[in-house]
Amino acid sequence: MDNTPARDPLAIAGRTFHSRLLTGTGKFKDLDETRRATEAAGAQIVTVAIRRTNIGQNPGEPNLLDVLPPERYTILPNTAGCYTAEDAVRTCRLARELLDGHNLVKLEVLGDQRTLYPDVVQTLKAAELLVADGFDVMVYTSDDPILARQLEQIGCCAVMPLAAPIGSGLGIQNRYTLLEIIENAKVPIIVDAGVGTASDAAIAMELGCDGVLMNTAIASAKDPVLMASAMRKAVEAGREAFLAGRIPRKRYASASSPVDGLIA
Q1: Higher-confidence residue: 50 or 85?
Q2: First CA to last CA distance, the chain
Q3: d(CA 105, CA 135)
Q4: Per-residue 3-state assignment (H helix, E strand, C coil) for 182-224
Q5: Residues forming the annotated binding site for 1-deoxy-D-xylulose 5-phosphate?
Q6: Residue 6: what pLDDT?
Q7: Catalytic residue positions, numbered
Q8: Which of 95, 178, 188, 214 is deepest in the core (most CB within 10 A)?
Q9: A GO molecular-function term, please (predicted)?
Q10: What is the dihedral of CA 6, 105, 224, 182, to 10 degrees?
């Protein structure tokens, strides 16, 4: 079977993508670096914090869409900075107006400014409201398998559990709860938050995640464009390793060559 990205697409809300690496657009030094890093990552879906990024709401200011045009990229408005369901819903509706009816959004409702952990009660409330309003909701959440199932049942088109706190770079700290979510999900599971380097992205994909979303790990690297390229390769390698199926772990060595018929 051909498992190249083109033959192994990521499907979200009826749309298919050959890249399983989703990238953010914040924290880069300028729009040119944003463009170059996004290209190096091979990303097709890029997240945009509507409250922090100009995509046309501020005429006369640099516009992100000039360097990442919607004709080439799927713009994923997110509700970063929202702490209530009401604010999140309002932000998504603003994004829909700015993007001419675009209904694919990333929902995040934060509960704490220090850790940026999600407020799961407000997240559930906002998800229900947005799905009822016709949005395709990709939702950032904790790594709680029960909550992930509830968000799927509400109608979210992708569930995005954290691997560690946003921007921490701690890597995959919760592989067993992630596995529980992955094994029971019928929608894409995309790790969102915590990735620090390429090996973290590969581990997430090897676990069976459908994709990885990252911003800080790329934008805050010493060389963001080079790190974006590394992340692209790591996500692709991790996906291939998952599809290939790793060997069982064993306590002791086993010969890699047959021993039958050896000359005494």
Answers
A1: 85
A2: 41
A3: 7
A4: HHHCCCCEEEECCCCCHHHHHHHHHHCCCEEEECHHHHCCCCH
A5: 167, 193-194, 215-216
A6: 61
A7: 106
A8: 214
A9: thiazole synthase activity
A10: -60
Mean pLDDT on 154-160? 97
Model pLDDT for residues 186-223, shown as the tens digit of each residue: 999 999 988 999 999 999 999 999 999 999 999 999 99
For the purposes of burial, counting CB atoms within 10 Å of the CB of 246, is it exposed (0-12), middle (13-18) or buried (19 or more)? exposed
Backbone angles phi, psi at 87, to 5 degrees: -65, -40
* pLDDT higher than threshold 90 for residue 92: yes
Q: Which residues are annotated as a binding site?
A: 167, 193-194, 215-216
Furthest-apart CA atoms within the chain: distance in Å: 83
pLDDT tens-digit readout, 23-56: 999 899 999 999 999 999 999 999 999 888 887 7
Instruction: Write the single-letter amino acid at 229.
Output: S
Query: Cβ contacts of residue 160 below 8 Å, gap of 6+?
Result: 106, 138, 139, 140, 141, 189, 190, 191, 192, 213
Question: In this structure, are strands 21-24 and 45-49 parallel, antiparallel, or unpaired?
Answer: parallel
Compute CA 109 distance to the chain's CA centroid, rounded to the nearest angstrom: 16
Q: What is the dihedral of CA 176, 177, 179, 185, to 10 degrees?
A: 170
Q: What is the pTM of this model?
A: 0.90
Task: Categorize the per-residue pLDDT at 255 as very low, low, confident or very high, splitting at 50, 70 and 90.
Answer: low
